[in-house]
Specification:
Elements: H1 7-20, H2 27-34, H3 47-50, E1 56-60, E2 66-70, H4 73-83, E3 90-94, H5 100-109, E4 114-119, H6 122-135, E5 140-144, E6 157-162, E7 177-190, E8 193-202, E9 205-213, E10 228-232, E11 240-244, E12 263-271, H7 278-287, E13 293-296, E14 309-315, E15 318-329, E16 332-342, H8 346-363, E17 372-377, E18 392-394, E19 398-403
Helix pairs in contact: 2-5, 7-8
Length: 408
């Protein structure tokens, strides 16, 4: 079989993958992907990498952490489907990066619509502008600024899209949307669990018309920074722990948690091929006080849930990570979930997480319909609540309510 190497072939193969995977559905968005040369927005990157199903880093900070990238094609496609951009729309994008997403938006709102895309670094703005100019964009303006502050001088917008992650709703953004506008924003629920929410107005509050699990590089250098602190775990290996400002964690003490004896609990909950962890993670993000954090890396004795590492519950100087045991029964192969705790309260935290996993499996699981969300800011926060009190998260500027009927 002749390898696909030319840009046109790679682009068509990419579109086919995205359609087959359910990420691309709308004819106008499919046409925009087919007509946009992704590699032109990644100068210096080889063609296969430009069209692969991966994010491509374009900037790192002094510590080596990625602070800007072009998102994986499936993420770009999924968010554009959430946006529902139409010809004539005025759009604000927070997070210009390479300009690729802004160019696609420009194609969708042409000929009368316009896109403003904002980034916080002059070099990113200059790079995006150069890429857009070379691609022939005529209805996209690149602005140096804080996307979380918006562009009130150009408001109201029909759509506002964040291609950077936020921990809360930026307070200046909702008022910059038109009455029938839509906000698409990757919002951390709690800890590392993040979803891209598409919100529309519902009276004084907001409701989701779409929500998808995805994570973005966090906001920085502005009014709604989402500060992530990576903790390098002591001992052998390269294990790191993601922590965030809202979590009650002793970052100094927890560094040595994995050096302390484990407390392991095996649940009776089994996952099989095709089962998603998406809804379990969402449930635990709501009901555990510190949600879940990513703990990537490996070390001798660590038994992670996945090859990259595990999702982990935190409490002070204690952690408890998800693990699994392989098995087989009359229905085929399964993976039985477990929890391994380390630290001064290892047994208690492991027991708490295991108990919540059983509750999720008994009352929700992967069989019930997908949940929806409501959001409110300012004085309207007190006007929304949840049937399950634990399904309410109050953030400094907003309230995020999970609506998820139980199956029993």
């Amino acid at each position: 079989m002749t390898p696909v190497t030319g840009p046109a072939e790679l682009r068509e193969a990419l579109v086919t993958r995205l359609i087959d995977g359910g990420h691309l559905r709308t004819p106008a968005i499919i046409a925009a992907f087919r007509g946009t040369e992704r590699h032109q927005f990644l100068p210096g990157v080889d063609l296969p990498a430009a069209y692969s199903e991966d994010a491509v880093p374009t900037k790192h900070d002094k510590t080596g952490e990625m602070i800007s990238c072009i998102s994986a094609p499936s993420i770009v496609a999924t968010q554009l489907e959430q946006m529902g951009a139409e010809p004539g729309h005025k759009i604000l994008e927070a997070g210009a990066a390479t300009g690729y997403n802004a160019y696609l938006l420009g194609q969708l709102v042409a000929p009368e619509g316009h896109v403003w895309t904002v980034d916080v670094d002059q070099d990113l703005v200059d790079g995006a502008q150069q890429n857009l100019t070379q691609a022939g964009a005529t209805n996209v303006t690149v602005v140096l600024g804080d996307g979380a502050a918006g562009l009130p001088e150009h408001a109201p917008f029909d759509r506002i899209q964040f291609t950077v992650g936020a921990s809360d709703i930026p307070v200046k953004i909702p008022d910059q949307l038109s009455p029938n506008g839509r906000l698409v924003i990757p919002l951390r629920v709690r800890g590392s669990i993040s979803r891209s929410f598409a919100f529309e107005r519902d009276g004084q509050a907001w409701k989701t018309v779409s929500t998808e699990m995805m994570t973005f590089v966090p906001l920085r250098k502005g009014v709604c920074d989402d500060t992530r602190t990576m903790v390098d775990m002591a001992g052998e290996g390269d294990v790191r722990l993601e922590t965030y400002a809202e979590q009650d964690v002793d970052r100094d003490a927890i560094r040595t948690a994995l050096d302390q004896p484990p407390a392991e609990i095996n649940t009776s909950v089994k996952f099989r091929t095709g089962d998603s962890y998406e809804w379990l993670y969402l449930y635990l993000a709501y009901v555990l006080p510190n949600g879940l954090s990513r703990m990537p890396g490996s070390r001798p004795g660590l038994i992670p849930n996945f090859g990259w590492g595990s999702m982990t519950a935190l409490d002070g100087a204690t952690l408890a990570y998800l693990t699994k045991r392989d098995g087989e029964d009359e229905h085929g192969t399964f993976w039985q979930l477990g929890v391994i705790g380390h630290g001064p309260q290892a047994a208690d935290l492991a027991e708490q997480v295991a108990t919540e996993i059983h509750k999720w499996h008994r009352h929700w699981g992967n069989e019930v319909p997908a949940p929806s969300f409501r959001m409110a800011v300012g004085d309207a926060r007190d006007q929304i609540g949840a049937a399950v009190p634990r399904f309410v998260i109050d953030k400094p500027a907003s309230r995020l309510v999970l609506d998820w009927p139980r199956q029993c």
